[in-house]
Structure formats: C-alpha cells, structure tokens
C-alpha cells in the first residue's frame, strides 16, 4: 500500500539539447520539484528553471564513466519520494527511448512510489530535423528504425543488434550514441550488401548552438567523422533522406524564434 504522506516522482524528458524543446508539462513539473536528479545531456538552462531551494543531484553517465550505477539512481528516487518530496528525474530526450526510464519506472512501481512519465522530444527525430533531415519522406523513406550504438553483449559475445538485417531493411536508420561504434557497424552494413553510396550523416550536439553536421556516404562517414574529430554526444542517420540536408538546412539556419520575437517587439 502507498503511504499517504509519500512523495511523487516525475520522469521528465528534457528534449534533445535546446532547452526550449522541453514540453510545457515537463517545465511545469520541473518548477514544482523539490529534488532534481539530472543527466549529463540536460541543458544547464533548465536547471535554472527549478525553484532556488530545490536540491539538484547530478547522476549523469558518459562513456566508460558513470557517476552512479542505475540501481543507485533508482534507490535515490525512492529515498527522496519516501521522504515526502516531489522528485523530478530529468533525462535527455525521452525517458523511454534508450533512457532507462522503463527500469526506473519499474523500480518505483515495485517500491509503491507514485510516478508519472512526462514524454520528451527524442533526439532521434529532433536532431536530424534541426540539421535539415526529415527522417521520413514520401519519396525517400516510409519507415524509421532507431537503434543504440551502445551494444550490450551476452555471454556468447554476440552483438545485440543485427546490423546485417538492418542493412537489408531499407528506410531511414538512426543510430543513437554510436560514435565509437561507427566504424564497426558501417562496415557490417557494407559487408551485408548495403550500397556504399547510401547517404549518411553524423550530427554532434544537435539542436544546440554547438551543432556540427557532417554529411557523407555510408562508405566514407566513419573516416570523415574521425578526421573531423566528431565526438559524443552525436547520432548517425543512414538513408536517402540525408540527401535533403543541403537543400533544407538553410531553413533550419533562419533566425531563432526568440530572435524573431525580439525583432518584432523592438
């Protein structure tokens, strides 16, 4: 039974990087939070939106280094909620898209903690869009596959993702968190028979002022990313829709909404 004086947890998707891309509901829940557990890719500006008295706890993860293990993060959520606090678990992108939000939700449910998931805009769609790449287009792709480049391996060392099957699937493929794995999975797709000239792009820190976009081909993307020193966080898009990047990027490079509103007010 849930205690009457127990707190509440919001699993909030902070969006892909641009702080303005959090949802209205996500921002409202953040304003109400007394404790905030936040990830590495959350925009610092969003933390400034919290109440000045709110306790902020960094629980971010990066390749080869985790501030806290997942079970420790789960325990913190439960601890603060049992103290009667309103807790915000602020996660980059969407909590349920490779964000381990499902694990946290199950832990909260098992502990009898009331919680709500506040969906966020996933980087898998928003980051390509900000770079002028629609992930679907009637003339280019009618399917979208989203995979993680962080491959969990079983006891037999078999990769968790069948890249050869993806190479035959067609449509648009978006690979999240796959900078280090880029040479390996592009080579596997080439060996599976995917056209070497298939358009491909890698986007670093998408939707932010630090965004970098590299457009190449499946055959050349890994080498070019190395030469251009592309680093995490970045995602890779493979498919014919990438060919629209040069044509549509000019639209995304227009003045920001904030700049437009300021110019109208002056």
Summarize the SSE layout with pairings.
Blueprint: E1 8-13, H1 24-32, E2 35-38, H2 44-47, E3 55-58, E4 61-62, E5 65-66, H3 70-82, E6 86-91, H4 101-111, E7 115-118, H5 123-130, E8 144-148, H6 163-169, E9 172-176, H7 182-191, E10 199-204, E11 212-217, H8 221-227, E12 234-238, H9 245-252, H10 257-265
Parallel strand pairs: 1-6, 1-7, 2-3, 2-6, 8-9
Antiparallel strand pairs: 4-5, 9-12, 10-11, 10-12
Helix pairs in contact: 3-4, 6-7
Q: Unreliable stretches, pLDDT < 50, 5 or more residues?
A: 152-158
Protein structure class: alpha/beta
Radius of gyration based on Cα positions: 20 Å
Q: What proportion of the residues is helical, as a percent range?
A: 25-40%
What sequence of helices (H) and strands (E) makes up the elements? EHEHEEEHEHEHEHEHEEHEHH
Largest sheet: 5 strands, parallel
**End-to-end C-alpha gap:** 57 Å
Total strands: the figure is 12
What is the general shape?
A: globular
Descriptive notes:
The protein is an alpha/beta fold. It is built from 10 helices and 12 strands. It has helices at residues 24-32, 44-47, 70-82, 101-111, 123-130, 163-169, 182-191, 221-227, 245-252, 257-265, and strands at residues 8-13, 35-38, 55-58, 61-62, 65-66, 86-91, 115-118, 144-148, 172-176, 199-204, 212-217, 234-238. It has a 5-stranded parallel β-sheet, sandwiched between helices. Helix 3 packs across helix 4 (101-111). The chain is globular and about 60 Å long. The model is unreliable at 152-158 (pLDDT under 50).
């Amino acid at each position: 039974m849930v205690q009457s004086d127990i707190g509440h947890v919001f699993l909030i998707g902070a969006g892909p990087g641009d702080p303005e891309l959090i949802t209205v509901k996500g921002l409202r829940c953040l304003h109400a939070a007394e404790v905030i557990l936040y990830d590495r890719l959350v925009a610092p500006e969003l933390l400034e939106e919290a109440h000045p008295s709110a306790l902020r706890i960094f629980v971010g993860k990066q390749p080869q280094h985790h501030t806290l293990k997942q079970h420790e993060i789960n325990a913190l959520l439960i601890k603060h909620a049992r103290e009667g606090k309103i807790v915000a678990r602020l996660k980059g992108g969407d909590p349920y898209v490779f964000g381990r939000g499902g694990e946290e939700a199950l832990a909260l449910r098992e502990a009898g903690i009331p919680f709500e998931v506040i969906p966020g805009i996933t980087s898998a769609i928003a980051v390509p869009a900000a770079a002028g790449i629609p992930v679907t287009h009637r003339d280019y792709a009618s399917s979208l596959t989203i995979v993680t480049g962080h491959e969990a391996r079983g006891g037999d060392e078999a990769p968790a993702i069948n890249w050869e099957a993806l190479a035959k699937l067609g449509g648009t493929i978006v690979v999240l968190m796959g900078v280090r794995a880029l040479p390996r999975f592009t080579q596997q797709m080439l060996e599976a028979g995917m056209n070497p000239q298939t358009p491909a792009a890698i986007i670093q820190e998408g939707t932010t002022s630090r965004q970098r976009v590299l457009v190449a081909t499946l055959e050349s993307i890994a080498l070019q990313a190395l030469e251009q020193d592309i680093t995490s966080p970045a995602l890779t898009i493979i498919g014919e829709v990438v060919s629209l990047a040069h044509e549509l990027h000019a639209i995304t490079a227009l003045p920001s909404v904030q700049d437009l509103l300021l110019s109208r007010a002056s």
